[in-house]
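Board notes, transcribed. Complex of a protein with adenosine-5'-diphosphate.
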Amino acid sequence: MELIQSGKYSLVHYDAERDHFIKTFQPKTFDRLRYALRIRPYPGHNVVLIAKRLEALGIATPTIVETQRYRSVTENIRGTPLKRLILDSPMLQEQYLDALTAFDHHGIHCRGLHTNNFLVRDERLFAIDLDAYKAPRWLRYSRREYLDCLRRSLKGEEAFLFARLLERLGLDEHYQPLR
Ligand SMILES: Nc1ncnc2c1ncn2[C@@H]1O[C@H](COP(=O)(O)OP(=O)(O)O)[C@@H](O)[C@H]1O
Ligand SMILES: [Mg+2]
């Protein structure tokens, strides 16, 4: 088993024998309590919920092998990070903006929508890191927060993508409707 990435509250391993990615979650106590009280879905269960929501929006996700409360196993997408391709591909820029627009429209929130959390295979975008997404339940998440996170994610050479997103949403730089 090869360690691929260690985050603050999760680890990602690659199982070469099975060609699977295994993500395990070690959330802080406060979050464990929220899961136990059903205020939020367990991260492993959230992966399944989000995959269904995204598939319904036409956004591809990895095939899920199995999930537990604090663990998810997905098949290797065998893709290339969007970050490496997006600047040279108007087609991928459109697909990425389509996804971001759909998330805004459906109130799907995520703090990690940067271009390393999407892989590309056969010219198609796949969303990964699904545990980081939040689907609306009773209330929708704040649009301002959604856009602020994206603005922080899309910097430097990718900043034009954020400007294009605002244009598509008909908003000015203060997120007010354009007249
Ligand atoms: N199903 C998958 N197929 C291909 N690569 C994956 C898959 N799941 C995870 N990865 C790889 O592991 C890395 C970390 O996974 P991710 O879920 O984004 O964790 P983190 O929350 O640490 O960013 C990804 O950037 C990607 O390179
Ligand atoms: Mg990630």
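Residues 112, 116-117, 129 surround magnesium ion (ligand 2) (CB under 6 Å). Residues 80-169 form a domain with the Transferase(Phosphotransferase); domain 1 fold (CATH 1.10.510.10).
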